[in-house]
Design brief:
The complex is a heterodimer. Chain A is mainly alpha-helical. Chain A is built from two helices and no strands. In chain B, 72% of the residues lie in helices and 0% in strands. The longest helix of chain B is centred in the N-terminal third of the chain and has 40 residues. Classes of the chains: A mainly alpha, B mainly alpha.
């Protein structure tokens, strides 16, 4: 579940990156690309936040339970 | 008037003012660190000169843009400049997130004997890997104090969740403002910009409140690797939100002055991206510091 959350956060960064490319290109096409990418990033962010609250409330995610290395 | 050649300003005095400001700032800072009495006021003076330079220089650039001195080549150079600034910002926060994750996922468990036990617990006898680690092992161990701590993280459901909701809402209002600008809806644009700025200010107020709670609970910059990374990450993020609020306010001023139109609004786009980035950084903080 934690990795799913991190993957969605990564996808949000991909859209931020796409917006930078739109900003760099400029013009009508670049401006359109930037706006659409930023709109997608806020939609994904709100959904991820709602999912976190839901997953926490039903016990799918425990706060600070992220450990990759087994402790002896 | 339009100019086919790349615009180069002549006789500008802002670079030398900037140099004087930065030099004054660092001389004051260095002496303040050495407890020299005049260090603090000199540092404040340097900061004031730098702020004066930034507002003056950027104001000059705005006047040049509105005056029609720029051509498409200048526009491209601004876009490349913003892109490199964005790259530096991403690297800046990546370093701090990297420090947090390295400490939490690798170095602290290693010290507790995890993985192949190369970094054995014998380094600090009695060390037990816990998170959040709010003491520095060497110092605490020498004093014979237990490494374990009863410190509890700030409640995820409290101010951190409220602040996340506030910043995400500001991202939504900014997106509506962006849409209004592209559609030529001036009143809606101003309303959504005001809402975005207000949400940013409220976020900062809550963040200061949370710092008060955390400090009261004993979490300081010197509270081990967790205290250091917590305050560095959230502190620099708060600084970026402050800068973002100032930039959004300047953009609102320029909107009211009629500096932008449906096709030409690069400054708005640059600031909008910056605000979205600061928003995502907080989402990352909420996830990595407070949640998982």
């Amino acid at each position: 579940m934690n990795l799913f959350v991190i993957a969605i956060l990564g996808l949000i960064f991909v859209f931020l990156g796409s917006a930078v490319i739109g900003l760099l290109r400029g013009g009508k096409a670049g401006s359109d690309r930037m706006f659409k990418a930023l709109r997608m990033r806020i939609i994904l962010s709100v959904l991820l936040f709602a999912f976190l609250l839901f997953a926490g409330s039903v016990g799918w995610i425990e706060p600070n339970s992220f450990n990759l290395l087994p402790t002896q | 008037m339009s100019n086919e050649k790349y615009y180069v300003p002549h006789g500008t005095y802002w670079p030398i003012i900037g140099s004087i400001g930065i030099s004054t700032l660092f001389i004051g800072f260095a002496n303040q660190m050495h407890d020299v009495s005049w260090g603090w006021p000199v540092m404040v003076l340097g900061f004031a000169i730098v702020a004066f330079m930034m507002f003056g220089w950027l104001g000059t650039v705005v006047a040049e843009s509105v005056g029609g001195f720029y051509n498409p080549q200048v526009d491209r150079s601004f876009r490349w400049g913003m892109s490199w600034f964005i790259f530096s910002e991403v690297m800046f926060f990546a370093a701090f997130f990297g420090a947090l994750l390295y400490a939490r996922v690798l170095s602290v468990p290693w010290l507790g004997g995890a993985d192949n036990n190369v970094f054995t617990p014998e380094l600090w006898e009695g060390f037990k890997a816990t998170w959040p680690l709010i003491s520095t092992p060497g110092e605490v161990g020498q004093n014979g104090v237990s490494f374990s701590t009863n410190f509890k993280l700030v409640d995820t459901w409290g101010l951190p969740a409220i602040n996340t909701g506030l910043l995400l809402t500001s991202g939504v209002t900014l997106t509506y403002a962006h849409h209004a600008l592209r559609a030529g809806h001036r009143n809606a644009l101003i309303t959504w910009m005001l809402a975005t700025i207000a949400l940013g200010v409220i976020f900062l107020g809550f963040q200061i409140t949370e710092y008060g709670h955390a400090y009261h609970d004993g979490l300081k910059l010197t509270s081990g690797i967790y205290g250091s990374t917590f305050y560095l990450l959230t502190g620099f993020h708060g600084f970026h939100v402050t800068v973002g609020v100032i930039m959004l306010t300047v953009i609102l001023y320029r909107i009211q002055k009629g500096h932008f139109n449906m096709e030409n609004h690069f400054a708005f786009e640059g600031v909008a991206w910056y605000w979205h980035f600061v928003d995502v950084v907080w989402l990352g903080l909420f996830i990595f510091v407070y949640w998982i």
